[in-house]
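WP5 quarterly update. Target: Glycogen debranching enzyme. Source organism: Anoxybacteroides voinovskiense. Length: 698 aa.
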Amino acid sequence: MEYRVIKENDLFFLTDEKGNIPKNHPYGLGLYTKDTRFLSKLHLHINGQEPVLLSSDAGENYVATILLTNPHMEKDGEILLWRESVEIERKRFIYEGVLYERINLKNYYPKPVQFELSIQVDVDFADMFIIRGFQTGKVGKRTGQTIGNRSLTFHYEGADQLKRATTITWDRQEKAVEEHGEIVFDFALNHAEEQTVTLIIQPQIGEEAQRNIASPIEALDRLKASYRQWESNITKITTDYEPLARLVSRGIGDLRVLLTDLGYGPFPVAGLPWFGVPFGRDSLIAALQMLPFQPEIAKGTLLTMAKYQGKHFDPWRDEQPGKVMHEMRFGELANTNQIPFTPYYGTIDATPLFLVLLTEYVKWTGDFELVRQLKNNIDDALMWIDQYGDRDGDLFVEYHQESAKGIANQGWKDSGDSIVHRNGEYAESPIALVEVQGYVYQAKMGLADIFEQLNEHEQAAKLRQQAEELRVKFEKQFWMEDVQFYAIALDGNKQQVGTITSNPGHVLFAEMLDSERMEKTIRTLLSPKMFSGYGIRTMGEGEAGYNPMSYHDGSVWPHDNSIILLGLSKLGKREEANIVMGGLIEAASHFEYDRLPELFCGYSKQFGKPVKYPVACSPQAWAAGTPLVFVQSLLGLFPNSLKKEIRLSPTLLEPMNVLKVENIAIGNGRLSVTVTRQNGETNVHIAQNTTGYEVKLV
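Structure tokens (predicted):
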């Protein structure tokens, strides 16, 4: 990463590797909350000069440590400061909506030294959509600065009538502070002496009361304690295959930092830096990936999505009653209705995925009370699928953009060139995506089983009938006999969009496909056309739209692979699943901090190391959740609270001999499993089972 980012709840801080925010940086660096930049410039100088970078550690998402030193400083033959005399350590973290930065300075010169440390700050209060170049519009104005006792506050009045401010305080007497945003400190250090200055930066929106800000030591202790609590409640894995262990540890840490709570329980936002907000499909899929490790996150995600479920017919926001949102924004442009993201509903898959997550969550937890609590939301989502989602009554759910500032392609491959015919022509809407039909089938079949348990027999029977009718028609209209594969979509004329893509792989998880065609689909997904050696591509090599450097037309997305993996594992395709996992694990070793990025280029492994995609988000929630799916797939773990059983079908990757998974939350208890391999034979030991469910080894 050429940037450094930390986040906690709704506040994130994006800087360059030195920890600075240069003006007009192409990445839009800054301190952000509610889609507004509350710090647009931050520059640290020593004697007016830029320090030299020594190291920049972003291994932890909640604390960043940056090490700098001074350049050589000489004037008229007189040495002002010998090179590398002063070590400058910048350590920053976020707690309860406040950014803390502790700057520690240590003298390594053999004699006393004196120098100035200056910090230049500024705030533009810019809306994120303007910063990213997506939108212009009417905005507010800066209303001045206030200098206080060891403090500087920048003020702004928005076009949405909200007053915003950024207050910067410090704990050391300054030499000077200027309204334009320069704070200067004098330092005099003896040999080996250390001194510090701590900045506390607080964004403020509206007339919110001035909060009691914890001391830096107390805030950091509380933050670390929250991480310890998170780790104590999560599933633990131990393995002799270190690359997998590192990937899972990184994924768990990334998902923790991406959690946000809008008042209905924690849920994962999509990713940093630009998508640290609620996203329908991203949040739902990440919560699905997390079920074996922390199922409570699924509950918070479902409750949040239910709260903002569509209630009206509003073409500006692509909203219809019962529809689950795509994305929600909170900035000035959203508040003044200059963009439709309040929330925006232009997604075709979030509504069935909401129901899929609910059914899978219930299978893991047996939490039927949540089903009762969300019954109206479930009914509304089903109504949307049948009425608004199926625009023409042909049983298929399709999308069409209504909003002038909305999204044209409304599946997970939402770039403008992602749904393309074999001849290179882009498909015209309304478009029925292959994976969405699988989500609808899976949702209705899963809900039918749940409703049977709740004695809702009539509704259960209706859902099963609808699902079967969809399955039969799906096989007839999506299967392409000439290439022995499923079309990515049907276009507005009900013609197959015949490009070979990864999308049909999602339908494996729904267990919807004809068995013979399912085998052929898996063979294609694992063929050299689709499998790069590092992962399954989004589009097959050689297709008219194929481009290994593209966003959706030949790149490799870890989360895309993870949903295919869930299907392969569920269907007992262990060898095929291991091939995919092995490729992704090898790819991850070439990325910073053993982190799977949002996506990477789809070049074949023969090309060499995996090629990074230049603007991939990192960390990204559903990429972080992918290694967690590896663990579920290796165990072949699929609980079913409705049957009071746990299906296990364990396997190990070739380099592994031990996989120990402890404290898996299932039902009202815990399951711990150890899988070992000795002399080529795999053994399974159930160390703990307090779930009350029967474990069935398959």
